[in-house]
Design a protein that fits this description.
This protein is mostly helical. It has two domains: about 5-385, no CATH class; about 395-495, no CATH class. The chain is about 60% helix and about 5% strand. The protein is built from 24 helices and five strands. The chain has helices at about 5-35, 40-50, 75-85, 90-115, 125-135, 140-145, 150-165, 170-180, 190-205, 215-235, 245-250, 260-270, 275-290, 295-310, 315-320, 330, 335-345, 355-365, 385, 390-405, 410, 420-425, 455-460, 480-485; strands spanning about 415, 445-450, 465-470, 475-480, 495. The protein has a five-stranded mixed β-sheet. The chain is globular, with a radius of gyration of 24 Å. The termini are far apart.
């Protein structure tokens, strides 16, 4: 900032723009874990990878064995796990905090773009920029992704931050953010290459010489090279486990495709992806009004990703629901980014200087329109998920009870747990103790009151004794006598 007096205010506003969405999405994931109930795949799996794991990213027993690198090359989870070794936090808190930071970084990127890119230093415009950044981090797409919490928004946030830093010529920040983005997943380099290559081509069509975008070209080449090496190394180390074949291509490739399948997906996508398609239509209208095709670069770069999912063999990928739409978070910020890049190269664009930022906010508003259908397997109610966080006492009592029950197999006999319980302690249970894989009738079942498997476990016959752990949503159904259960050392009360 050029004005020294405005710098403390700018820093305070930026800290607030980061902290508010980080806090809100932290609460949402904690609500997912302790109140509605999470899933072993993938909430519990990812939380186990990001908490007291090792360099190999070992899968928890509830999932199987081996390394997560066979599924995704995600060194960033090694870094997050190392941070968990020095922080006094539980597994759910660590993963919830990681998701919160991801959304906070989305807001911070947009705040920096709006304030430094459009010369907003003080007063009510600074407050509006902070609120706009928070709104971007809480867009309809961001919320749709958070309903099935994954780590991909961290990569999108870091990639967006690196693009903002490149546009503002802060190359050290760009390098660090770009490295963190690449470390999130093996394909982030391909996404970076798509955005940056179209960025450079669009600039050239504007009359900007290639050498003025030397850094952007360099980052694009690095991203492409990194993904090529990471994918080749993954295939070499784990030849029998190709996520590309398992999720997208099928075996043999594209043998699953039929006219009916494509027709169903094309007909259903507008309803499922309103939070993507409405902003894309808004960007198209804005590009036509301003005669500036650079506005569309973000969405154009996402087209190959959308086509890949349209043809995918896995149903969730084929519908591109949940976290699969994460690259479009960057596309939504592109109008504001295009305005800053245009000003940097003195490109004449129709409209007032602040118009690109306003266009981006319009896209965010369109993403929140109550149109279509959200993929919400965890039944995360809003705004309850932001406001109704489990208390510290509830978390402590739930974790303590699950640890005691997991260590009492000799007392409880063969038991079955629901996804929600296993997601809170994915290393405490075997895969055969999950409802989906249980082979013999259990003597005890453990579940959260609103967990995904709760209705089936609650209705399981031959378990007449029903208990609740006070102050928690943990429930127990068993055929063991009450006196035997009292030896576990945890409070129990009768439950219907």
């Amino acid at each position: 900032m050029s004005a020294t007096a405005s710098r403390p205010t700018w820093l305070l506003a930026g800290a607030g723009a980061f902290a508010l969405p980080a806090w809100l999405f932290y609460r949402l994931v904690m609500y997912h874990f302790y109140i509605r109930g999470g899933f072993v795949e993938d909430t519990g799996l990812l939380a186990a990878l990001a908490w007291h794991n090792g360099l190999a990213l070992h899968l928890p027993p509830t999932i199987g064995s081996g390394s997560f690198f066979a599924i995704h090359v995600a060194p960033v989870l090694v870094l997050v796990s190392a941070v968990s070794d020095v922080l006094p936090v539980t597994l759910p808190r660590m993963f919830s905090g990681f998701i919160g930071v991801s959304h906070g970084l989305l807001a911070l990127s947009v705040f920096w773009l709006l304030t430094s890119g459009y010369d907003v230093r003080r007063g009510w415009p600074l407050l509006l920029a902070a609120l706009a950044a928070v709104g971007f981090a809480c867009s309809g797409l961001a919320i749709a992704i958070a309903r099935y919490p994954h780590f991909e928004p961290f990569g999108a946030a870091c990639l967006l931050l690196s693009f903002v830093a490149l546009a503002l010529r802060h190359r050290t920040v760009a390098l660090v953010a770009f490295a963190l983005a690449l470390a999130t997943r093996e394909d982030l380099g391909l996404h970076a290459f798509g955005f940056l290559s179209l960025w450079v081509v669009a600039e050239r069509l504007r009359g900007v010489r290639w050498r003025r975008n030397a850094w952007e070209i360099g980052f694009a080449c690095v991203g492409l090279a990194y993904s090529a090496v990471a994918l080749a190394a993954q295939h070499s180390a784990f030849p029998g486990n190709s996520s590309l074949a398992r999720i997208y291509l099928g075996d043999p490739p594209f043998a699953h495709l039929t006219g009916g399948l494509l027709a169903d997906r094309l007909a259903g996508w507008p309803a499922v992806h309103a939070c993507i398609l409405l902003p894309a239509m808004g960007a198209l209208l804005w590009a036509g009004r301003t005669r500036d095709p650079f506005v569309l670069v973000g969405y154009a770069a996402c087209l190959p990703w959308a086509l890949l999912h349209l043809l995918a063999v896995a149903p969730l990928a084929g519908w591109m629901v949940g976290y699969y739409g994460f690259p479009f978070l960057i596309a939504m910020a592109w109008p504001a980014l295009a305005g800053v890049i245009g000003r940097r190269h003195a490109v004449t664009v129709l409209g007032p200087p602040w118009a690109p930022a306003a266009a981006m906010l319009a896209l965010v508003a369109l993403s929140l329109a109550p149109v279509g259908w959200d993929y919400d397997p965890g039944r995360i109610a809003l705004p309850d998920a932001f406001l109704d966080q489990p208390s510290a006492e509830q978390q402590i009592e739930t974790d303590r009870a699950i640890a005691a029950l997991a260590g009492a197999r000799d007392v409880l006999g063969p038991f079955v747990v629901d996804n929600s319980v296993a997601a809170l302690a994915p290393s405490a249970f075997a895969s055969s103790e999950l409802l989906a894989w249980a082979k013999a009738p259990p003597h005890t079942v453990l579940f959260l009151a609103e967990g995904y498997d709760a209705p089936r476990l609650r209705a399981m016959p031959g378990l007449p004794e029903r208990y609740a752990v006070p102050g928690t949503t943990l429930r127990i159904a068993t055929d063991r006598p009450e006196a035997l259960l009292q030896s576990l050392g945890i409070p129990l009360v009768p439950s219907r």
